[in-house]
Amino acid sequence: MNSRERLLVALNHREPDRVPIDLGGTPTSTISARALENLKAHLGIQSPTRLMSPIFLTAYPDAEVVRKFGIDVKMVTANPAAGFAIHPTPEGKIIDEWGVVYQWNEEAQTHFVVESEAPFHRVTTPEQVEKHPWPDPTDPGRYRGLKETARRYQQEGYAVVVSAPLMVMTQTQGMRGLEQFMMDTVLNPSLLEYMMDKILEIQLEMSRRLLEEIDPHMDVIVIGDDLSHQGGLIYSPDMYRRLLRPRHRKIMRVLKEEFGDAKVLYHSCGAVEPLIPELIDLGVDAFNPVQVSAKGMDDTKKLKAKYGRHLTFWGGIDTQRVLAFGTPGEVRNEVRRRIEDLAEGGGFVLAAVHNIRPEVKPANICALFEAAQEFGKYPRK
């Protein structure tokens, strides 16, 4: 059974030969560039590191890493816009093509949004929204060569995950500023929804062109918006249904009606359990990252029993404590526990909860993926 066959069997809630493994298959299940470089030095791998995100300083795992750890998925995403490049300022700031400003944080080894410089921070009318210099979704350079890449990955036996730019709430928060966004939900919902719909219009056009270019060489489409934080939901269920669910429904309608052969993987960090039924009702096929350190998410056996008939769990290995601060033995125990809880009957793809951080030691990364191959074999005992 090759990697693509393995993933497709698991996504259809049947047991393959072993649990599929992901590293680098989505923008939120990869590895920081620094952690990857430390890992390669540990393994004696000499190759240039290829950045996945110049904003978050994440990387694509090298081919030798993919082979050694039995990784089953590879990601395809749009190219940068023609003529656009990110140029850091001497102060460590960068601006993306949407106009969102980020500031480098040395301690966190990543960039954070500068809310006071958000392009819509002081916008008060729809006319101002329309005048913004929006990205051009029709730029053919965004999609050039992607079909060939996806076809090659499938021919090599890998499953292909397409990262679609469909994070309407996250993008709106970046362009408005989180504090102003949250105030808008109560004080200025009509302007907020106008912004969201304009952003969604552009994201859907980008996504359609991206997916049409790659189709049929794709197995999973990853989308998402964070609906929760460590301790609970960001929005009440009622606010979610009023503000976000109509946009998510529109996204899912396009993906299911126009690209229905691919499964939809939805990403949300945090304590999202109260909204999992909403995601299932929308038609989401798989859920990432299963943040087991968040409230109500640690009992993965219960989550599997409650939602496992409808949803594939993708992730589950704690990065907040175990990978970052545990021993290799504790990492092995974590992997074994999550496999025991989530793997029965298929419907589980093993990965770290979110990206592997710079401080994670190479020995723990090796323990993660070696244990995944050791304990992930079917049939489960």
Describe this structure in words.
Strand 6 (101-105) and strand 7 (110-113) form a beta hairpin. This protein is an alpha/beta fold and 381 residues long. It starts with a helix and ends in a 6-residue tail after the last helix. The relative contact order is 0.15. The protein has helices spanning 3-11, 33-43, 63-68, 126-130, 146-155, 168-176, 178-187, 189-214, 237-258, 276-282, 300-307, 319-325, 328-342, 362-375; strands spanning 31-32, 50-53, 58-60, 73-77, 93-95, 101-105, 110-113, 159-163, 220-224, 228-229, 232-233, 263-267, 286-288, 312-317, 348-352.
What's a quick, concise take on this entry?
This protein has 381 residues and is of the alpha/beta class.
Alpha-beta content class: alpha/beta
The number of helices is: 14
CATH hierarchy, class: Alpha Beta
Helix-strand topology string: HEHEEHEEEEHHEHHHEEEHEHEHEHHEH
- Please provide the count of β strands: 15
Main sheet makeup: 7 strands, parallel
Q: How much is the radius of gyration in Å?
A: 20 Å
Helix content: 40-55%
Separation of the first and last Cα atoms: 20 Å
Fraction of residues in β-strands: 15-25%
* Strand arrangement, major sheet: 4-8-9-12-13-14-15
Nearest-integer average pLDDT: 96
Shape: globular
CATH architecture: Alpha-Beta Barrel
Q: Give the tally of structural domains.
A: 1
What is the fold-level CATH name, i.e. the topology?
TIM Barrel
Poorly predicted residue ranges: none
